[in-house]
Write a structure and sequence with these properties.
Layout lengths: L1 E4 L17 E4 L9 E6 L5 E5 L2 E5 L9 E6 L1 E8 L2 E7 L1 H8 L8 E3 L7 H29 L7 H9 L13 E3 L6 E3 L14 H6 L3 H34 L8
Antiparallel strand pairs: 1-2, 3-6, 3-9, 4-5, 7-8, 10-11
Length: 253
């Protein structure tokens, strides 16, 4: 749809200066005029796109299905021409689809050539999405290397890493962090040992997991108790042997 001003059709009304331009509206549909268009998505995210003619929900792809599908039909809209004048028009399903997917192609969302996506279309969408997600992961690695700051990593970068099953430290944000008093690096709140400098942050919790001086002391005490128990057992054994070898009453050794 387009607007144009035809200066050659200006009409001057008698009795006042000035002119009124005639507005020409191009209402002929462009491109595919099919009554229904199918949008397929292999993205694991729900997408909501709002337009003046409606709010469109592109559903996330279920884990048990190869894709999710959204069927679009033509919609009506109105242009306000001013002076209480309105011009109704129709938007084709294909025009709506092309408008909705302007920024979603790289996420594995596309318009199907038919009522359902073909294997070739799904393969191309997967390749396009994976290439985009690998690019995002590379950006995430670069930002993380600059300062190990979770704030620099966007949800889009994390989603890309999780979607491709790529293990990255920056892809998982702890609920709360605190600074290690020894090295100053960010660590999860409540951990027993700093993962950066290995300082003991919670001696009691560390000891429960066999870490730190308290654990070593407990292990030493336990080892001493075992050795003492072994010594006692050996003493008892020797005592029993000696008692068995002692002559009984009336016997001559």
């Amino acid at each position: 749809m387009s607007f144009s001003n035809d200066s050659s059709k200006q009409q001057s009304a008698p009795g006042y200066a000035g002119s009124r331009r005639e507005v020409l509206l191009e209402t002929r549909p462009k491109g595919d005029t099919s009554a229904t268009v199918a949008i397929a998505s292999i993205s694991d995210q729900d997408w909501y796109v709002s337009r003046t003619h409606g709010v469109y929900h592109i559903p996330a792809c279920p884990k048990t299905e190869p894709y999710a599908l959204l069927l679009l039909t033509s919609r009506g809209d109105v242009i306000d021409l001013g002076d209480n004048r309105r011009f109704p028009f129709t938007i084709t399903a294909r025009e709506i689809a092309d408008d909705l997917l302007q920024d979603l192609h790289d996420h594995g969302i596309f318009v199907c050539a038919g009522p359902r996506p073909s294997e070739e279309e799904l393969a191309a969408a997967t390749e396009r999405r994976d290439a985009y997600y690998h690019h995002l992961i590379g950006d995430g690695d670069t930002m993380w290397a600059r300062g190990h700051s979770y704030r620099e990593i966007s949800d889009l970068h994390r989603r890309a890493a999780i979607a491709l099953g790529v293990e990255r430290e920056w892809a998982y944000v702890p609920l709360s962090t605190s600074e290690c008093p020894a090295c100053g690096e960010k660590v999860k709140t409540g951990v027993a040992v700093c993962k950066h400098c290995h300082a003991i942050l919670d001696a009691e919790k560390a000891a429960q997991h066999g870490l730190g001086p308290s654990a070593a002391l407990r292990q030493g005490l336990a080892k001493g108790n075992v050795e003492q128990a072994n010594t006692s057992q050996r003493s008892n054994h020797y005592s029993n042997q000696n008692s068995n070898q002692s002559p009984k009453n009336g016997e001559v050794k």
